[in-house]
Write a structure and sequence with these properties.
474 residues, 5-stranded parallel β-sheet, alpha/beta
Protein backbone atom coordinates (compact mmCIF):
# COMPACT_ATOMS: atom_id res chain seq x y z
CA UNK A 1 0.00 0.00 0.00
CA UNK A 2 1.32 3.43 -0.91
CA UNK A 3 0.89 6.44 1.31
CA UNK A 4 2.28 8.41 4.20
CA UNK A 5 1.81 7.84 7.94
CA UNK A 6 2.83 9.92 10.93
CA UNK A 7 3.15 8.58 14.46
CA UNK A 8 3.37 10.84 17.52
CA UNK A 9 5.39 9.20 20.28
CA UNK A 10 8.18 6.63 20.12
CA UNK A 11 7.21 4.49 23.09
CA UNK A 12 6.73 0.75 22.50
CA UNK A 13 3.19 1.27 21.19
CA UNK A 14 4.16 4.09 18.83
CA UNK A 15 7.06 2.05 17.50
CA UNK A 16 4.86 -1.04 17.11
CA UNK A 17 2.32 1.02 15.16
CA UNK A 18 5.07 2.44 12.96
CA UNK A 19 6.40 -1.04 12.20
CA UNK A 20 2.94 -2.37 11.23
CA UNK A 21 2.36 0.61 8.94
CA UNK A 22 5.82 0.29 7.38
CA UNK A 23 5.30 -3.44 6.85
CA UNK A 24 2.21 -2.53 4.83
CA UNK A 25 4.30 -0.29 2.57
CA UNK A 26 3.54 3.16 3.97
CA UNK A 27 6.27 5.75 4.41
CA UNK A 28 6.40 6.29 8.18
CA UNK A 29 7.66 9.25 10.23
CA UNK A 30 7.72 8.90 14.03
CA UNK A 31 8.05 12.05 16.16
CA UNK A 32 9.33 11.74 19.73
CA UNK A 33 9.30 14.65 22.18
CA UNK A 34 12.27 13.47 24.24
CA UNK A 35 15.88 13.25 23.11
CA UNK A 36 15.84 9.44 23.27
CA UNK A 37 13.15 7.10 21.90
CA UNK A 38 11.40 4.69 24.22
CA UNK A 39 9.02 6.63 26.47
CA UNK A 40 9.05 4.67 29.74
CA UNK A 41 11.27 2.02 28.11
CA UNK A 42 14.58 3.88 28.35
CA UNK A 43 17.88 3.24 30.13
CA UNK A 44 19.76 6.25 31.48
CA UNK A 45 22.61 7.18 33.82
CA UNK A 46 20.28 8.45 36.52
CA UNK A 47 22.67 8.35 39.50
CA UNK A 48 26.40 8.12 38.70
CA UNK A 49 28.41 7.67 35.48
CA UNK A 50 28.49 4.05 34.36
CA UNK A 51 25.36 3.04 36.32
CA UNK A 52 22.63 2.27 33.75
CA UNK A 53 19.15 2.53 35.23
CA UNK A 54 15.79 1.80 33.63
CA UNK A 55 13.72 4.98 33.74
CA UNK A 56 10.46 3.01 33.69
CA UNK A 57 9.78 -0.61 32.87
CA UNK A 58 12.63 -2.94 33.83
CA UNK A 59 11.21 -6.49 33.70
CA UNK A 60 9.24 -7.65 30.68
CA UNK A 61 7.01 -10.71 30.98
CA UNK A 62 4.66 -9.37 28.30
CA UNK A 63 7.55 -8.07 26.21
CA UNK A 64 8.98 -11.57 25.90
CA UNK A 65 5.46 -12.99 25.58
CA UNK A 66 4.00 -10.38 23.21
CA UNK A 67 2.44 -11.94 20.09
CA UNK A 68 3.64 -9.00 17.99
CA UNK A 69 7.14 -8.57 19.41
CA UNK A 70 7.65 -12.33 19.15
CA UNK A 71 6.93 -12.11 15.42
CA UNK A 72 9.78 -9.63 14.85
CA UNK A 73 13.49 -10.51 14.41
CA UNK A 74 14.50 -8.32 17.35
CA UNK A 75 17.41 -10.60 18.28
CA UNK A 76 19.04 -9.59 15.00
CA UNK A 77 19.36 -6.07 16.45
CA UNK A 78 21.02 -7.17 19.67
CA UNK A 79 18.03 -7.86 21.93
CA UNK A 80 18.92 -10.60 24.40
CA UNK A 81 16.58 -11.68 27.19
CA UNK A 82 18.19 -12.60 30.52
CA UNK A 83 16.26 -14.85 32.90
CA UNK A 84 17.03 -14.92 36.60
CA UNK A 85 16.84 -18.45 38.11
CA UNK A 86 13.51 -17.52 39.75
CA UNK A 87 11.25 -14.83 38.27
CA UNK A 88 10.14 -13.46 41.65
CA UNK A 89 10.98 -13.56 45.37
CA UNK A 90 8.68 -12.49 48.20
CA UNK A 91 10.50 -12.31 51.55
CA UNK A 92 8.69 -12.76 54.84
CA UNK A 93 9.37 -11.52 58.36
CA UNK A 94 10.48 -14.93 59.62
CA UNK A 95 13.61 -14.75 57.46
CA UNK A 96 12.29 -17.00 54.71
CA UNK A 97 11.18 -16.07 51.21
CA UNK A 98 8.59 -17.69 48.99
CA UNK A 99 9.78 -17.91 45.39
CA UNK A 100 7.75 -17.92 42.20
CA UNK A 101 9.73 -20.53 40.28
CA UNK A 102 9.68 -20.90 36.51
CA UNK A 103 8.69 -24.60 36.52
CA UNK A 104 5.00 -24.83 37.27
CA UNK A 105 5.20 -28.61 37.58
CA UNK A 106 7.47 -28.20 40.60
CA UNK A 107 5.02 -25.94 42.43
CA UNK A 108 4.71 -28.44 45.30
CA UNK A 109 8.38 -27.93 46.13
CA UNK A 110 8.00 -24.19 46.73
CA UNK A 111 4.33 -23.86 47.72
CA UNK A 112 3.91 -27.12 49.59
CA UNK A 113 0.28 -28.06 50.11
CA UNK A 114 -0.86 -25.15 47.92
CA UNK A 115 1.22 -26.34 44.97
CA UNK A 116 -1.60 -28.37 43.44
CA UNK A 117 -4.10 -25.52 43.73
CA UNK A 118 -1.58 -23.10 42.17
CA UNK A 119 -0.94 -25.50 39.30
CA UNK A 120 -4.66 -26.07 38.70
CA UNK A 121 -5.27 -22.32 38.55
CA UNK A 122 -2.52 -21.60 36.04
CA UNK A 123 -1.82 -24.73 33.99
CA UNK A 124 -4.30 -24.04 31.15
CA UNK A 125 -2.91 -20.53 30.62
CA UNK A 126 0.70 -21.70 30.77
CA UNK A 127 0.30 -24.70 28.47
CA UNK A 128 -1.58 -22.61 25.90
CA UNK A 129 0.28 -19.35 26.41
CA UNK A 130 0.23 -18.31 22.75
CA UNK A 131 -3.55 -18.76 22.57
CA UNK A 132 -4.07 -17.10 25.95
CA UNK A 133 -1.82 -14.11 25.22
CA UNK A 134 -3.47 -13.61 21.87
CA UNK A 135 -6.86 -13.29 23.54
CA UNK A 136 -5.98 -11.26 26.66
CA UNK A 137 -4.00 -8.80 24.53
CA UNK A 138 -6.92 -8.13 22.17
CA UNK A 139 -9.33 -5.21 22.36
CA UNK A 140 -12.27 -5.59 24.76
CA UNK A 141 -15.09 -6.24 24.43
CA UNK A 142 -14.51 -8.73 21.62
CA UNK A 143 -15.30 -12.35 20.80
CA UNK A 144 -12.41 -14.50 22.06
CA UNK A 145 -10.77 -16.96 19.71
CA UNK A 146 -10.41 -19.42 22.57
CA UNK A 147 -13.60 -18.97 24.61
CA UNK A 148 -12.89 -21.81 27.06
CA UNK A 149 -9.62 -20.24 28.14
CA UNK A 150 -11.16 -16.82 28.56
CA UNK A 151 -14.15 -18.25 30.39
CA UNK A 152 -11.73 -19.88 32.82
CA UNK A 153 -9.96 -16.56 33.34
CA UNK A 154 -13.29 -14.84 33.87
CA UNK A 155 -14.55 -17.49 36.30
CA UNK A 156 -11.46 -17.16 38.49
CA UNK A 157 -10.46 -13.57 37.78
CA UNK A 158 -13.54 -11.36 37.84
CA UNK A 159 -13.63 -11.62 41.62
CA UNK A 160 -11.29 -9.84 44.00
CA UNK A 161 -7.80 -11.10 44.78
CA UNK A 162 -8.89 -11.59 48.38
CA UNK A 163 -11.73 -13.93 47.42
CA UNK A 164 -9.55 -16.01 45.09
CA UNK A 165 -6.61 -16.22 47.49
CA UNK A 166 -8.66 -17.19 50.52
CA UNK A 167 -10.88 -19.63 48.61
CA UNK A 168 -8.12 -21.43 46.70
CA UNK A 169 -4.95 -21.07 48.81
CA UNK A 170 -4.59 -22.24 52.41
CA UNK A 171 -1.15 -21.02 53.49
CA UNK A 172 -0.25 -17.47 54.44
CA UNK A 173 2.92 -17.41 52.33
CA UNK A 174 1.06 -18.53 49.19
CA UNK A 175 -1.60 -15.86 49.75
CA UNK A 176 1.13 -13.25 50.25
CA UNK A 177 2.74 -14.26 46.95
CA UNK A 178 -0.57 -13.86 45.13
CA UNK A 179 -1.23 -10.52 46.82
CA UNK A 180 1.99 -9.09 45.39
CA UNK A 181 1.10 -10.31 41.92
CA UNK A 182 -2.42 -8.88 42.10
CA UNK A 183 -1.11 -5.55 43.38
CA UNK A 184 0.42 -4.90 39.93
CA UNK A 185 -3.17 -3.97 38.95
CA UNK A 186 -3.12 -0.75 41.05
CA UNK A 187 -6.49 -1.93 42.37
CA UNK A 188 -7.52 -2.59 45.93
CA UNK A 189 -7.25 -6.32 46.56
CA UNK A 190 -10.95 -6.24 47.46
CA UNK A 191 -11.98 -4.91 44.03
CA UNK A 192 -13.29 -7.03 41.15
CA UNK A 193 -10.68 -7.82 38.48
CA UNK A 194 -7.76 -7.72 40.92
CA UNK A 195 -7.65 -11.54 40.88
CA UNK A 196 -7.43 -11.55 37.08
CA UNK A 197 -4.34 -9.37 37.19
CA UNK A 198 -2.73 -11.71 39.69
CA UNK A 199 -3.31 -14.65 37.34
CA UNK A 200 -2.13 -12.66 34.33
CA UNK A 201 1.13 -11.79 36.10
CA UNK A 202 1.71 -15.35 37.31
CA UNK A 203 1.03 -17.12 34.00
CA UNK A 204 3.88 -15.58 31.96
CA UNK A 205 6.30 -16.26 34.83
CA UNK A 206 5.81 -19.96 34.12
CA UNK A 207 5.25 -19.69 30.36
CA UNK A 208 7.91 -17.21 29.15
CA UNK A 209 9.54 -15.92 32.35
CA UNK A 210 10.01 -12.41 33.70
CA UNK A 211 13.17 -11.50 31.77
CA UNK A 212 15.30 -8.36 31.66
CA UNK A 213 16.98 -7.18 28.43
CA UNK A 214 20.78 -7.30 28.54
CA UNK A 215 22.04 -3.74 28.81
CA UNK A 216 18.69 -2.44 30.08
CA UNK A 217 15.25 -1.82 28.64
CA UNK A 218 16.72 0.57 26.08
CA UNK A 219 17.89 -2.56 24.25
CA UNK A 220 14.27 -3.44 23.47
CA UNK A 221 13.57 0.10 22.26
CA UNK A 222 16.74 0.15 20.18
CA UNK A 223 15.81 -3.14 18.50
CA UNK A 224 12.33 -1.82 17.63
CA UNK A 225 13.83 1.40 16.26
CA UNK A 226 16.39 -0.51 14.19
CA UNK A 227 13.72 -2.74 12.67
CA UNK A 228 11.51 0.23 11.84
CA UNK A 229 14.42 1.98 10.14
CA UNK A 230 15.22 -1.17 8.16
CA UNK A 231 11.64 -1.06 6.87
CA UNK A 232 12.25 2.52 5.72
CA UNK A 233 10.76 4.39 8.66
CA UNK A 234 12.18 7.60 10.11
CA UNK A 235 12.38 8.50 13.81
CA UNK A 236 12.80 12.13 14.85
CA UNK A 237 13.72 12.78 18.49
CA UNK A 238 13.46 16.09 20.37
CA UNK A 239 10.47 16.73 18.10
CA UNK A 240 7.53 17.56 20.35
CA UNK A 241 4.25 17.96 18.45
CA UNK A 242 1.98 20.64 19.89
CA UNK A 243 -0.64 20.49 17.13
CA UNK A 244 -1.30 17.73 14.59
CA UNK A 245 -1.71 20.49 12.01
CA UNK A 246 2.08 20.95 12.07
CA UNK A 247 2.73 17.36 10.94
CA UNK A 248 3.81 16.71 7.35
CA UNK A 249 0.97 15.95 4.94
CA UNK A 250 -0.12 12.35 5.55
CA UNK A 251 -2.81 9.78 4.94
CA UNK A 252 -3.07 8.56 8.53
CA UNK A 253 -1.89 9.77 11.96
CA UNK A 254 -1.48 7.57 15.03
CA UNK A 255 -0.94 9.11 18.47
CA UNK A 256 0.90 7.30 21.25
CA UNK A 257 -0.62 9.80 23.69
CA UNK A 258 -3.04 9.70 26.59
CA UNK A 259 -6.58 11.07 26.05
CA UNK A 260 -6.00 14.48 27.64
CA UNK A 261 -2.87 14.98 25.54
CA UNK A 262 -4.80 14.04 22.42
CA UNK A 263 -7.26 16.79 23.30
CA UNK A 264 -4.40 19.29 23.46
CA UNK A 265 -2.84 18.40 20.11
CA UNK A 266 -5.96 17.48 18.11
CA UNK A 267 -8.99 18.83 19.96
CA UNK A 268 -9.84 21.13 17.09
CA UNK A 269 -10.34 18.09 14.85
CA UNK A 270 -12.60 16.15 17.24
CA UNK A 271 -16.36 16.27 17.66
CA UNK A 272 -17.81 17.97 20.73
CA UNK A 273 -19.14 14.68 22.11
CA UNK A 274 -15.78 12.97 21.75
CA UNK A 275 -14.00 15.84 23.45
CA UNK A 276 -16.37 15.45 26.41
CA UNK A 277 -15.71 11.69 26.59
CA UNK A 278 -11.95 12.11 26.44
CA UNK A 279 -12.06 14.84 29.08
CA UNK A 280 -13.84 12.39 31.40
CA UNK A 281 -11.06 9.81 31.08
CA UNK A 282 -9.71 9.00 34.54
CA UNK A 283 -6.04 8.47 35.29
CA UNK A 284 -4.95 5.92 37.83
CA UNK A 285 -2.66 6.06 40.86
CA UNK A 286 0.95 7.07 40.46
CA UNK A 287 4.26 5.72 41.64
CA UNK A 288 7.06 7.08 43.81
CA UNK A 289 10.30 5.66 42.38
CA UNK A 290 13.91 5.51 43.53
CA UNK A 291 16.99 4.37 41.57
CA UNK A 292 20.03 3.24 43.52
CA UNK A 293 23.73 2.89 42.78
CA UNK A 294 25.08 0.31 45.24
CA UNK A 295 28.45 -0.71 46.63
CA UNK A 296 27.44 -4.38 46.62
CA UNK A 297 24.35 -6.60 46.31
CA UNK A 298 21.43 -6.03 48.65
CA UNK A 299 22.03 -8.02 51.89
CA UNK A 300 18.74 -9.92 51.98
CA UNK A 301 18.01 -11.78 55.20
CA UNK A 302 16.51 -14.52 53.01
CA UNK A 303 19.34 -15.54 50.68
CA UNK A 304 16.78 -16.94 48.22
CA UNK A 305 16.06 -13.38 47.15
CA UNK A 306 19.41 -13.36 45.34
CA UNK A 307 17.92 -15.86 42.84
CA UNK A 308 15.30 -13.40 41.54
CA UNK A 309 15.56 -10.21 39.52
CA UNK A 310 12.24 -9.01 40.97
CA UNK A 311 11.43 -8.82 44.68
CA UNK A 312 8.07 -7.91 46.22
CA UNK A 313 8.27 -6.25 49.64
CA UNK A 314 5.10 -6.09 51.63
CA UNK A 315 4.83 -9.00 54.02
CA UNK A 316 1.47 -10.70 54.39
CA UNK A 317 -1.62 -10.57 52.19
CA UNK A 318 -3.33 -8.31 54.72
CA UNK A 319 -0.43 -5.83 54.84
CA UNK A 320 -0.37 -5.52 51.06
CA UNK A 321 -4.16 -5.19 51.00
CA UNK A 322 -3.99 -2.32 53.51
CA UNK A 323 -1.33 -0.57 51.41
CA UNK A 324 -3.26 -0.82 48.15
CA UNK A 325 -6.60 0.11 49.74
CA UNK A 326 -5.04 3.27 51.19
CA UNK A 327 -3.62 4.24 47.82
CA UNK A 328 -7.04 3.80 46.16
CA UNK A 329 -8.53 6.10 48.80
CA UNK A 330 -5.96 8.78 48.05
CA UNK A 331 -3.82 8.16 51.13
CA UNK A 332 -0.09 7.42 51.24
CA UNK A 333 0.39 4.25 53.27
CA UNK A 334 2.82 4.14 56.21
CA UNK A 335 4.04 0.67 55.16
CA UNK A 336 3.76 0.68 51.36
CA UNK A 337 3.98 -2.36 49.12
CA UNK A 338 7.31 -1.99 47.30
CA UNK A 339 8.36 -3.50 43.97
CA UNK A 340 12.14 -3.83 43.61
CA UNK A 341 14.35 -4.95 40.72
CA UNK A 342 18.01 -5.93 41.08
CA UNK A 343 19.24 -6.46 37.49
CA UNK A 344 23.02 -6.41 37.99
CA UNK A 345 22.91 -9.75 39.81
CA UNK A 346 22.32 -11.20 36.34
CA UNK A 347 23.57 -8.48 33.95
CA UNK A 348 26.97 -7.11 34.97
CA UNK A 349 27.10 -4.76 31.95
CA UNK A 350 25.01 -2.13 33.73
CA UNK A 351 27.38 -0.98 36.50
CA UNK A 352 31.13 -0.60 37.04
CA UNK A 353 32.95 -3.79 38.04
CA UNK A 354 31.85 -5.00 41.46
CA UNK A 355 29.06 -2.40 41.78
CA UNK A 356 25.31 -2.83 41.44
CA UNK A 357 22.06 -1.01 40.79
CA UNK A 358 18.53 -1.40 42.10
CA UNK A 359 15.18 0.14 41.17
CA UNK A 360 12.21 0.38 43.53
CA UNK A 361 8.81 2.02 43.61
CA UNK A 362 5.62 2.09 45.62
CA UNK A 363 2.09 3.04 44.64
CA UNK A 364 0.81 6.49 45.63
CA UNK A 365 -2.24 8.61 44.78
CA UNK A 366 -2.08 10.26 41.38
CA UNK A 367 0.07 13.37 41.50
CA UNK A 368 1.06 12.78 45.14
CA UNK A 369 3.65 15.13 46.60
CA UNK A 370 4.24 13.03 49.74
CA UNK A 371 7.90 12.11 50.24
CA UNK A 372 7.81 8.31 50.52
CA UNK A 373 11.58 7.78 50.62
CA UNK A 374 11.81 6.98 54.31
CA UNK A 375 8.83 4.61 54.19
CA UNK A 376 10.07 2.86 51.05
CA UNK A 377 13.58 2.39 52.42
CA UNK A 378 12.20 1.15 55.75
CA UNK A 379 10.46 -1.64 53.84
CA UNK A 380 13.73 -2.60 52.12
CA UNK A 381 15.62 -2.49 55.45
CA UNK A 382 12.91 -4.64 57.01
CA UNK A 383 13.87 -7.54 54.78
CA UNK A 384 17.50 -6.55 54.07
CA UNK A 385 19.06 -5.07 57.24
CA UNK A 386 22.07 -2.96 56.30
CA UNK A 387 20.70 -2.00 52.89
CA UNK A 388 21.31 1.72 53.48
CA UNK A 389 25.00 1.01 54.05
CA UNK A 390 25.13 -0.29 50.45
CA UNK A 391 23.91 2.96 48.89
CA UNK A 392 26.43 4.96 46.85
CA UNK A 393 23.84 7.32 45.36
CA UNK A 394 20.12 7.54 44.79
CA UNK A 395 17.77 9.37 42.42
CA UNK A 396 14.27 10.05 43.70
CA UNK A 397 11.29 10.50 41.38
CA UNK A 398 8.02 11.96 42.62
CA UNK A 399 5.05 11.45 40.25
CA UNK A 400 5.58 14.92 38.76
CA UNK A 401 9.23 14.09 38.05
CA UNK A 402 8.22 11.03 36.08
CA UNK A 403 5.67 13.02 34.08
CA UNK A 404 8.30 15.68 33.32
CA UNK A 405 10.46 13.00 31.66
CA UNK A 406 7.58 11.24 29.89
CA UNK A 407 4.37 13.22 29.38
CA UNK A 408 2.34 10.00 29.09
CA UNK A 409 2.95 9.28 32.79
CA UNK A 410 0.25 11.69 33.90
CA UNK A 411 0.47 12.18 37.65
CA UNK A 412 2.88 9.27 37.79
CA UNK A 413 0.33 6.85 36.27
CA UNK A 414 2.43 4.14 34.57
CA UNK A 415 -0.44 2.04 33.16
CA UNK A 416 -2.27 4.62 31.06
CA UNK A 417 -5.44 5.06 33.09
CA UNK A 418 -7.56 3.82 35.96
CA UNK A 419 -8.18 0.07 35.76
CA UNK A 420 -11.65 -0.38 37.18
CA UNK A 421 -14.09 -2.65 35.35
CA UNK A 422 -15.81 0.05 33.25
CA UNK A 423 -12.68 1.78 32.06
CA UNK A 424 -10.83 -1.51 31.55
CA UNK A 425 -13.45 -2.65 29.03
CA UNK A 426 -14.08 0.73 27.38
CA UNK A 427 -10.78 2.60 27.35
CA UNK A 428 -10.89 5.32 26.34
CA UNK A 429 -14.14 4.99 24.31
CA UNK A 430 -16.09 2.28 22.57
CA UNK A 431 -14.21 3.07 19.35
CA UNK A 432 -10.99 1.76 20.98
CA UNK A 433 -8.52 3.47 18.60
CA UNK A 434 -10.47 5.46 16.02
CA UNK A 435 -11.47 9.03 16.77
CA UNK A 436 -14.21 11.19 15.33
CA UNK A 437 -11.57 12.78 13.06
CA UNK A 438 -10.93 10.96 9.81
CA UNK A 439 -7.66 8.98 9.77
CA UNK A 440 -6.67 10.06 13.31
CA UNK A 441 -6.13 7.25 15.82
CA UNK A 442 -5.05 6.78 19.43
CA UNK A 443 -2.57 3.95 20.10
CA UNK A 444 -1.19 4.46 23.63
CA UNK A 445 -1.47 2.31 26.76
CA UNK A 446 -4.74 4.19 27.41
CA UNK A 447 -6.27 2.01 24.67
CA UNK A 448 -6.90 -1.76 24.80
CA UNK A 449 -5.38 -4.00 25.97
CA UNK A 450 -3.82 -1.42 28.30
CA UNK A 451 -0.52 -1.03 30.13
CA UNK A 452 2.63 -3.16 30.15
CA UNK A 453 5.29 -3.34 27.46
CA UNK A 454 3.82 -5.50 24.70
CA UNK A 455 3.19 -3.12 21.79
CA UNK A 456 -0.27 -4.58 21.18
CA UNK A 457 -2.07 -1.23 21.54
CA UNK A 458 -0.01 0.13 18.66
CA UNK A 459 -0.34 -3.10 16.70
CA UNK A 460 -4.16 -3.18 16.89
CA UNK A 461 -4.52 0.55 16.23
CA UNK A 462 -2.33 0.33 13.12
CA UNK A 463 -4.24 -2.71 11.86
CA UNK A 464 -7.51 -0.80 12.25
CA UNK A 465 -6.05 2.25 10.51
CA UNK A 466 -4.84 0.16 7.58
CA UNK A 467 -8.16 -1.63 7.19
CA UNK A 468 -10.07 1.65 7.12
CA UNK A 469 -7.57 3.21 4.74
CA UNK A 470 -8.00 0.32 2.33
CA UNK A 471 -11.78 0.57 2.51
CA UNK A 472 -11.60 4.30 1.86
CA UNK A 473 -9.58 3.68 -1.29
CA UNK A 474 -11.72 0.85 -2.58
Amino acid sequence: MEGKACVIGAGPNGLAAGIVLAQAGLAVDVFEAESTAGGAVRTLELTLPGFLHDFGAAVHPFGAGSPFFSSLPLHQYGLEWIHSPAPLAHPLDDGRAVLLERDLWQADSWLGSDGKAWRNLLLPFVERWSDFAGDVLRPLPSIPRHPWLMARLGWNGLVSARILAFCRLRQAHARALFAGLAAHSFLSLDEPLSAAFGLMMAAPAHAVGWPIPRGGSQSLTNALCAHLRKLGGNIYTSARIHDVATLPANDVTLCDLTPHQLLRVAGHRLSASEKRRLARFRYGPGVFKVDYALHHPIPWRAAECLRAATVHLGGTFQEIAVSEAAMRKGVACERPFVLLVQPTLFDWTRAPAGKHIAWAYCHVPNGSTVDMLGRLEAQIERFAPGFLDCVLARRVFFPADLESMDANLVGGDIVGGRLDLRQFCFRPTWRHYATSAENLYLCSASTPPGGSVHGMCGYHAARMALARLKRGRA
